[in-house]
Design goal:
heterodimer; A: mainly alpha; 0% strand; B: 259 residues
């Protein structure tokens, strides 16, 4: 269980960090231009973190989770639609649970 | 909320000279920005609903799930945060994971800075406080062609914010009344969404290699590090690989697509 005060503390903290990313880029540019290397770092980091979350989720899960993520990736490769990738994976995982449960 | 279908700036550091006309932020610009994004905003609805349901499943209360959307307004990082939502809350890893997921905002802000940095502080803040991939892409395109009203960014952001919040509320209440969310496949929403975004962001070896390295680091460090830290290690590793890849040729730069 997460108690209410620590939950709101965490939400406030994350909101501040997010706001910092929104205003930070333009703020820094007042003093020093973002180098191409820093830009490549930020760009690569923001795709890497998502990929890392996915593999961690799959490694913690079972065949059901692995297959559902595979379905999402296949749909994305086929039709380039994140919405449909998400819906297909949900339907797949939900169907799996119904058949297994 | 970040939509995955937009492209980042091509070489933001090359755009440091905005044209001489002064940038403003007006009510008309805000209205125009909101109007322009009405069709696009529809696409955040399924993600907002999915986030709301998943947040309830992760153990957030109705208020907390809604507050997160209202104050963060950054879908991918919200999904990442609820994945780490177990008491006692790991504040530092939450903050760092959110920072890594939203680091892309820094690039967007830098790219649009030639325009917004002409504004006085209050309006400067208003122009940036709801910056996301979607309103950035729309405003950047228009401002590059000479449009000089940063209200466009704020208006687009406000519309996306309202849509994201409304969709979250729908999802939160759906999650609160549903009995077995596994039958809806809600637990795989985040991984499916992120998997799709990752695929969308990989356009060649330059974008693929950092992601591959990150996956390897995440798996290898998972048994060694406390919850969430393997993700931070992987994000840093991927970022460093990306930073030290040789610079690409000018015309070769392809738009990546992810939130």
């Amino acid at each position: 269980m997460v108690d209410a005060s620590s939950a709101y503390l965490a939400i406030g903290l994350m909101a501040l960090v997010t706001l910092g990313t929104r205003i930070g880029g333009a703020y820094v540019m007042r003093f020093v231009p973002l180098s191409a290397r820093v830009e490549r770092f930020l760009e690569a980091m923001s795709s890497s973190v998502l990929a890392a979350i996915v593999v961690t989720f799959v490694a913690r899960g079972s065949l059901r989770e692995l297959s559902a993520v595979a379905v999402a990736i296949l749909v994305m490769v086929a039709i380039r639609s994140p919405v449909w990738a998400m819906i297909a994976a949900m339907a797949f995982a939900g169907g799996w649970s119904m058949l297994a449960g | 909320m970040d939509l995955p279908e937009t492209s980042p700036p091509a070489g933001s550091s090359n755009t440091s000279r905005a044209s001489s006309a002064l940038v403003t932020l007006t009510y008309e610009g805000v209205v125009r920005g909101a109007r322009r994004l009405v069709p696009v905003s529809v696409f955040v609805i399924p993600f907002g609903i999915a986030y709301g349901v998943a947040a309830i499943e992760a153990g957030l209360t109705v208020d907390q799930a809604i507050a997160m959307s209202a104050f963060m307004f950054a879908g991918a990082s919200q999904f990442a945060a609820i994945d780490l939502w177990q008491g006692p809350l790991p504040y530092l890893s939450l903050a760092l994971v959110v920072l890594a997921v939203n680091a892309r905002h820094l690039i967007l802000g830098a790219a649009i800075s030639p325009y917004v940095n002409q504004l006085p502080p209050g309006r400067w803040f208003l122009a940036l406080c709801l910056l996301s991939d979607v309103n950035f892409a729309d405003s950047y395109k228009l401002m590059k062609t000479g449009y000089r009203d940063a209200g466009l960014i704020l208006g687009g952001g406000l519309l996306m914010w309202v849509t994201w919040l409304a969709a979250t509320i729908v999802g939160v209440f759906a999650g609160a009344i549903a009995t077995n969310l596994d039958y809806l496949g809600v637990d795989v929403v985040m991984a499916a969404f992120f998997g799709a975004l990752t695929v969308g962001s990989v356009t060649g070896w330059r974008t693929g290699l950092p992601v591959l390295v990150a996956c390897g680091v995440a798996l290898l460090t998972m048994p060694l590090l406390p919850s969430g830290w393997n993700i931070i290690a992987a994000a840093l590793a991927g970022g460093v690989v990306g930073a030290f890849l040789p610079a690409e040729d000018k015309g070769e730069r392809e738009p990546t697509a992810h939130g």
